[in-house]
Amino acid sequence: MHNVIVTGGSRGLGLAIASGLAAAGHRVIAIARSRSPELAAAIEACGRAQQGALEFNAFDLMNTAGIAGLVDDIKRQAGPIYGLVNNAGIGVGGVLTMMRDEQIESLTQLNLLAPMLLTKYALRSMMVERAGRIVNVSSIVSATGVKGLAAYAATKAGLVGFTRSLAREVGELGITVNAVAPGFVATEMTREMTDEQRERIIRRSALRRLPEADDVAGAVEYLLSDKGRNITGVTLTIDAGATA
Length: 244
Hints:
Distance between the termini: 37 Å
Shape: globular
């Protein structure tokens, strides 16, 4: 049973990824600031299924100074780290000239700096084992312009560049580094949109629908499986053909 860390694992996309990996037989450590009712239910269901494991570790990734200690604690309690899914992030939007400096700093700290630091310390465990899988959750906005998301898009594009270069850096150690770029996934994010906004996105999609969180979770599961052992340095887009 491989130990896999999933950040932002208490709800939405992160919870779908964490639950899917646990069902695939991994021991998943879901990191979030607090345990949501949805995560508690998923942990209980995983225990009943007796396949894989799903655990919760409370931590605020804005506390970047504590990330090294977090990884040490996980290694001490669970053993070597095999997988890391950097999913946690915030999607603050707004015209750049009107955003507060603190908003831009927080966005960059959680969406880009925290994943880089968490990867740095998790990699040390993977390097000892000469095996590991890292998946960074980016977004289609990293490659397509969206008004009002300039700062957010910059952080997600940064994850793509980080993915490609790090794949070269650690490949000879048997560690793969990939990214997934979801489109507008049918989760809390799109539920906040108006019906007209959702319909506009659906009409632009080749498959005339929105991707589901489980679609992204399935892609992450594949990249962490033996079938994905020769895939590294790529960004897999999951958007129902919105950018086709």
